[in-house]
Each structure stands twice: as C-alpha cells, then as structure tokens.
Amino acid sequence: MKSSREFAAVILSSLAFAGTVSAAPVTISTGVTSTVPSIFNGIVDLLLMWSSLVATALFLMGSALMVGSGGNDATLSNGKKIMKASLIGLAIILSSWLIISTAVSFIAP
User: What is the pLDDT of residue 100?
Assistant: First the structure.
C-alpha cells in the first residue's frame, strides 16, 4: 500500500513541475530553403510525370494490341478503345496541370 502512495506522489510531483521546466527549441540548419508553393509544385510535377508515363504505356499497349490483332475485330476495337482512353487521359492530365500551375502562380507569385 505504501508503494502505491509513493508512486502517486512521484507522479503528482512530476506533473506539478512539468510546466516550470522549459527547453530551448532545437533547430537544425540543412541549408535547404523551401516554401509551401515550391513543395506543392514539386508534388504536382512528380504526379504529372508518373501519370504521363502511365498514359504513354497504355497508348503503347493499345497500339500493340492493334498490331497484334491479326484481323480479330474484338482485339482491334479493344486496342482502339485503349488508345483513345489514354489520349483523353493525357489531355485531362495536361489540362489539370495547366489549371493547377495557373492557380498556384496567382496564389503565391
């Protein structure tokens, strides 16, 4: 029983003194200065690059399906659909990049 009282006393006293101790803030200088717009712009550029690579790969896959269809109309139409969808996707990607970069340039010049 005595140990639980001592434990409670130690906890309460540590809580009482916790507000009085202040530590100096720790700063680490890496030499890299970045702002929120530059970070956001980097993320958008990275996503643009990856999505463009995916759209290009899908376009090439659709063209390979068309070339390798061997006269099969179903495979030929699937290749055309994939190519058309990848071009539409690439147009959406580029237009969204244009909208986002314009908005960022107006918000944070």
Answer: 82
Q: Which residues of 50-82 are buried (b: 16+ CB within 10 A; e: fewer)?
A: ebeeebeebbeebeebbeebeeeeeebeebeeb
Domains in the chain: boundaries: 35-109
Helix spans in the chain (H): 2-18, 36-67, 73-107
List b or e across 8-21, with b for residues whose CB sees 16 or more CB atoms inside 10 angstroms.
Answer: eeeeeeeeeeeeee
State the first-to-last Cα distance of the chain, in angstroms, to the nearest integer: 67
Average pLDDT, 10 consecutive residues per value, the chain (109 residues): 62 57 65 75 85 92 92 91 94 88 78
Phi, psi of 104 (to 5 degrees): -65, -40
**pLDDT in the model for residue 5:** 65
State residue 4's pLDDT score.
64
Cβ neighbour number for residue 48 with a 10 Å cutoff: 16
Helix, strand, or coil (residue 19): coil
Give the tokens for residue 26. Answer: 């720790």
